[in-house]
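Write out structure tokens for Uricase.
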Amino acid sequence: MESVELTWEPARSAPGEFSRRAPRTLCCPDPCSRILCRQGALPGRRILANREYAKDYDICHAEYGKTGVKLLYIYKSGLHQTPRELEVTTRISLADRNEYKHGDNRDIIGTDSQKNIVYVLAKKHGVTSPEEFGLLLAQFLLDQYSHVVESSATVIETTWDRIEKDGMKHKHAFVHNPGVERWASVKINRREPPVITAGLRGLRVLKTTQSEFKNFYRDEYRTLLDTDDRIFSTIIKKIQMDMPNKHYMDMDLSGFPKDMVGVGVNKTVFLPTDKPSGFIHAALERKGSSKL
């Protein structure tokens, strides 16, 4: 089937029609065609297209939900308290496409309702981890609404570190740690087991010695020399790790007077560089079944 993009252009097209354009991109990763629209492709708003082209297309995937639901949950045990701050995003897919094809809103679960469900579940069950809360929320959307065929929840946690004074951790005072975010994404289809992806954002690691790189492939394009010792640094983004190299290059200070920089090869001052960088990808998979 040919892929075309249908865009609403009232200045060029007759009222209620779409103009046909050459394909630029597919909106979904599946090998199917999908109607794309700049204006109007929203639940509850009927898509009107030229019948000559509309009969050849169908909506292969549609989802909607609430983005950026902010939540602070505080565990309390007397004066000892622990905050869990989350940002939650929901997505659901319905069994039919009546809201797109016929402007029929009767099956639509309002995004405001989805926001309220986040708060009610937090109040009823508490918040333990992004993975567990995301799984709880996604499963609830399937259990509560029989016409939802797929649901997903993405949960990002803001890190709060307990303040210490004189070696003692404060019971209810915290400082924000902007360096690391914990996150989880949960997707559940009624016909399949849950898929949970989780990780950390902004977790930067540094190893200052005992990291070598040598004996790699030699050809006419290689200029990088073997090294027995170098600085290793990267940013871990998720369990399926994408690890761009963060280089710390040796600096040649031999051109400066010895009374300024000392004698011998410089091994204490380095130049941080992040571009261009190499790229390393590795995936971790839990052995056996999950205990979640």
